[in-house]
């Protein structure tokens, strides 16, 4: 395990050396003070086209994110930060059968996480996105219908990403600033379009393979064995029976906190 952790740390250092613009919040996991952002926010009405792709004319609104987001060639695999910090991510939701249980556990331990949502799931569960916003979680874009992007043309990819950013903006209160390709299958168009929409690509370090329903204990073991500074953990709150994922979080989250880990979410800084 030590060897594995060293490898993870080496990887994290490499990402840091690449000049990534991400940083982790340093709010301790059990710190009662809420992080300054995102926090509760009004569910404002926005122009439907506020974050749509624009021609590169330089006439975007002041502070528009797209011009500042780099086009990467690989997704980020870790989130470097000082100390024993990790990020928990949950994909494919929200699902009213499982997402509330995950949110309840995170709230119980005052921990923030990332949810890479699919637009078609978010559309019918806007209340869950609003809850994520209210409780300080970060919502990322995981496409509309979870296709294999490498088999789609550029127009379809763009549509998948744009529609999802739109529904997230409406339900969560702001457009997503993170993107994760379904199945971890990235291509050049996904990196380019994601950057144009102001999103950084985030993959993961530790895959719990929870979607195979390997048993709650196995999921817990995979998280605990993979725990190391900068690690991003992949789990799922939708796409099948995720009751094992919900139960596993209840077990490994207090364990990680007892081991001195801070579970937090990345904050995008200026590029
Ligand atoms: Zn997925």
From TrEMBL:
Q: What is the recorded name of this protein?
A: NodB homology domain-containing protein
The molecular function GO annotations come to:
hydrolase activity, acting on carbon-nitrogen (but not peptide) bonds; metal ion binding
Q: Which residues form the signal peptide?
A: 1-23
Q: Per UniProt, which keywords does this protein have?
A: Hydrolase, Metal-binding, Signal
Keyword Aminoacyl-tRNA synthetase recorded: no
Question: Which Pfam families did the record assign?
Answer: Polysacc_deac_1
Quote the Gene3D superfamilies the UniProt record gives: Glycoside hydrolase/deacetylase
Q: What InterPro entries does the record point to?
A: Glyco_hydro/deAcase_b/a-brl, NODB_dom, Polysacc_deacetylase_ArnD, TAT_signal
Report the residue ranges that make up the NodB homology domain in this protein: 84-264
Q: Which SUPFAM superfamilies match?
A: Glycoside hydrolase/deacetylase
* GO BP annotations listed: carbohydrate metabolic process
Q: Does the keyword Hydrolase apply?
A: yes
GO cellular-component terms in the record?
A: membrane
Q: What is the lineage of its organism?
A: Bacteria, Bacillati, Actinomycetota, Actinomycetes, Kitasatosporales
């Amino acid at each position: 395990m030590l060897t594995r952790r060293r490898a993870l740390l080496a990887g994290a250092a490499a990402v840091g050396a690449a000049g990534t613009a991400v940083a982790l919040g340093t709010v301790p996991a059990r710190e009662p003070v809420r992080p300054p952002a995102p926090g509760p926010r009004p569910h404002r009405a926005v122009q439907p086209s506020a974050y749509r792709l624009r021609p590169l004319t330089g006439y975007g609104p002041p502070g528009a994110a797209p011009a500042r987001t780099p086009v990467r060639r690989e997704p980020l695999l870790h989130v470097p930060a000082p100390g024993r910090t990790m990020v928990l991510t949950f994909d494919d939701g929200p699902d009213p059968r499982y997402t509330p249980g995950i949110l309840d556990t995170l709230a119980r331990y005052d921990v923030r996480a990332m949810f890479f949502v699919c637009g078609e799931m978010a559309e019918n569960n806007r209340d869950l996105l609003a809850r994520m916003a209210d409780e300080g979680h970060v919502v990322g874009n995981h496409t509309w219908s979870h296709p294999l992007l490498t088999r789609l043309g550029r127009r379809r990819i763009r549509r998948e990403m744009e529609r999802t950013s739109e529904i997230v903006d409406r339900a969560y209160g702001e457009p997503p600033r993170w993107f994760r390709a379904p199945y971890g299958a990235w291509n050049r168009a996904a990196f380019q379009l994601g950057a144009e929409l102001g999103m950084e690509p985030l993959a993961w370090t530790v895959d719990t393979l929870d979607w195979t329903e390997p048993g709650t204990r196995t999921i817990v073991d995979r998280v605990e064995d993979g725990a190391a500074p900068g690690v991003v953990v992949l789990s799922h709150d939708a796409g099948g029976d995720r009751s094992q994922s919900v139960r596993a979080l209840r077990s490994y989250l207090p364990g990680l906190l007892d081991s001195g880990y801070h579970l937090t979410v990345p904050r995008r800084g200026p590029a």
